[in-house]
Amino acid sequence: MSHPFESLPTPPLGDELLDKAFSRGARTGRAKSGLDAQSSMLQTAANIISDNLENVVTAWPDIESLHPFYRDLADAIVGVDSLRQHLNEVGWASRKATEIRTEYQPRLRRTDTETARKHRKQAYARLADIVEEVEDDLEALMETRETLRVLPDIRPDRPTIVVAGYPNVGKSSFVNTVTRASNEEASYPFTTTQVHVGHVEHEHIQYQLVDTPGLLDRPPAERNAVESQAVSALSHAADAVLVVLDPSGTCGYPLELQERLRADIEDRFSVPVLSVYNMLDRMDEGDTEAVEGEQTMSVATGANVDAVLDTAIEAVDYEPELPIDEG
Ligand SMILES: Nc1nc2c(ncn2[C@@H]2O[C@H](COP(=O)(O)OP(=O)(O)OP(=O)(O)O)[C@@H](O)[C@H]2O)c(=O)[nH]1
Ligand SMILES: [Mg+2]
Known about the structure:
Layout: H1 14-30, H2 34-59, H3 68-77, H4 80-104, H5 113-133, H6 135-149, E1 160-164, H7 171-179, E2 184-187, E3 194-202, E4 205-211, H8 225-237, E5 240-245, H9 255-268, E6 273-277, H10 285-290, H11 305-316
Parallel strand pairs: 1-4, 1-5, 5-6
Antiparallel strand pairs: 2-3, 3-4
This protein binds guanosine-5'-triphosphate and magnesium ion.
């Protein structure tokens, strides 16, 4: 399993494609003579251009049928409207190459070789124009492919717990501890930080824990448009959010700010949002009073860590689709 953009082929760039089309055309032309040679040259070159461009378009996943998580992510990173536009242009060029072939083929028959050669050259020039016209689109698709290929392998259909909270509260420590060595890292192309995806099995179900440094660790007003959209994407993947807070002040942010972030997340996500107050080992009497009745843990000592994971898994309330045994 992988994400929908992982195995996109490299689109041919304009010059490369023309080179391939015309050199193959020349080769088929050399194998024949007279009008046949000109006709084969056109046939081969136009087909290569048309087929290659069509393959570029069909290789891309259908944007409408993408999981909303990946659609939002793609939109945040490259903009799906411009992606659609580039694909439309390339599709147009593919059809145009076929049209040129159909238009010129009759002119290469029942005439002298010299005239046929002239027409074939004219057709080649028009094919080259068409490819040149979509050169920018092909380049943009190439860049888009490079960008989207490295998306984190989050499986949006798997039950997913998103871990949020201010920097240094212990998010990564928690994810690393409960998922042990099963961590994968992947870069979001638009942040300097990395997303960590850990997997944990519970009663034969694989849960996914997503640690999101740089995205859900500060107030929404401080996120740029791209990050906001990435948060939107995450909201499609999340089945529960675990907000980690540090009342001890070790992380450097007042608890009040951290609790405001939690309120923002509750507004943004329509799934259960749980809290856990970490750094139990660092809390003084005042801190423990402040979090009286709340869920606490210490990733450092291991206290209550498994219980927190269990609560999060319960919140996901994931019901695998099993045939109902009416007994
Ligand atoms: N004393 C104590 N230290 C902890 C505890 N949990 C985490 N830490 C430490 O706090 C520091 C920050 O922990 P991280 O897990 O990196 O925090 P984070 O929330 O992932 O931080 P960012 O990735 O920067 O957002 C690390 O040095 C941890 O070892 C805890 O329960 N007690
Ligand atoms: Mg971290």
